[in-house]
Amino acid sequence: MASPTPLTFSACSSASSSSATLYSIPPDTDCVSDGSFSSAAAGFAPPVEDAAPTAEDPSVYHLSFNQDCGCFVAGLDNGFRIYNTDPFKALFRRDMDSCGGIGLVAMLFRCNVLCFVGGGPEPLYPANKVMIWDDHLSRCFGELSFRSEVRNVKIRRDKIIVVLAQKVFVYNFVDLRLVHQIETALNSKGLCEVSHTSSPMLLACPGLQKGQIRIENYGSKKTKFVMAHDSRLACMSMTQDGRLLATASSKGTLVRVFNALDGSLLQEVRRGADRAEIYSLAFSSDAHWLAVSSDKGTIHVFSLKVDSGSLATLSNDRSQVVSAPNPSNGLGISSLSILKGVLPKYFSSEWSVAQFRLPEGSEYLVGFGQQKNTVIIIGLNGSFYRCEFDSVKGGEMTQLEHHNYLSADNFLKPG
After folding, report:
1. pTM for the complete prediction?
2. What is the Cα–Cα distance from 79 to 98, expressed in whole angstroms?
3. What gap in Å lies between CA 287 and CA 195, rounded to an integer?
4. Could you give the CA distance from residue 232 to residue 258 in angstroms, rounded to a whole number?
5. Between the CA atoms of 359, 362, 363 and 365, what dihedral angle is there, to the nearest 10 degrees?
6. In a 3-state reduction of DSSP, which class is residue 345?
7. Are 34 and 340 a contacting pair, CB within 8 Å?
8. What is the enclosing helix (H) or strand (E) of 39?
9. Confidence at residue 29, expressed as pLDDT on a 0 to 100 scale
């Protein structure tokens, strides 16, 4: 059967900075979002236990969680791997026929559709292209091409968002039609967050000024600009419903939590006094906790005092902020907070409730596990940790699991 004729869509009316090609409409996307992984439903090959040992560990070019942290994906020098997080389990391995690195992988919960960007010294795909892969078909069914390197990709069931160094493009998933283009300040990290469980979509990205956030509400069709930090933005995270947004700057000392619906500042927490590079921020599913990882090697968990369920819905432009105490008994608030305004701000800061210390020297990402009060930590060095924190007493977390996800014992035979 002859392959379908490619359908080409112009990505911008003025022509030129990007283009979209849809090779064929894929079959209906199968999603499993209840925390279980279905190889048949998702189109992934089932695990094979007798994995042959590898001579050496592959290079890791990319790590990321899926939307609910139930899985994580590693982009390697010859393909990608997907793992379950709670408990840890290798789910799927795909070694590409042609040798080449994958520098970015975007998952959509546990669906068969993923987005790839090439990476490493011998990239599988050009760094200026987003390849849309359907694992039912074991091939790409579409691509998005740009004039410069792709920095990040986000997927929703209805949209694909592509981030360049100074632009954000929003496409319809079904036909790859460009629906919105946003200009940003220099955004080398590809910072961008979108809501996933709400419709219409809410999107946050850097604005045009240093430290500024731009929030696009596609329900009210309004744009809000928030001066979040004096320094440039370094990291951000959004709750799945799009109501809360956490940001950190290049200083890495403070993390701020905003109402994403009206841009108001709800809470500020302190990671530490020394400068640090923030690698990741993550909200718990109930928005009671916020986790932070940095180059200092310590994972911090903070108690949030905001009840996101009481905030206005995305479709309602009248936003109201309601602060409510969390069942954490106020852990993390300095006993000197009554002197706020008299002593330096440092002494009245809100500090982390729980911590977990890691070896310095590698980049770690953090997310929350499926079980209550558990944290998942993954590192570019192949480390996987699952830890538990005491929501009442706080302090050092308890390690529940530790694995090297790159080891031969955790590899599957190629899919």
Report:
1. 0.79
2. 9
3. 14
4. 17
5. -40
6. helix
7. no
8. helix 39-42
9. 42
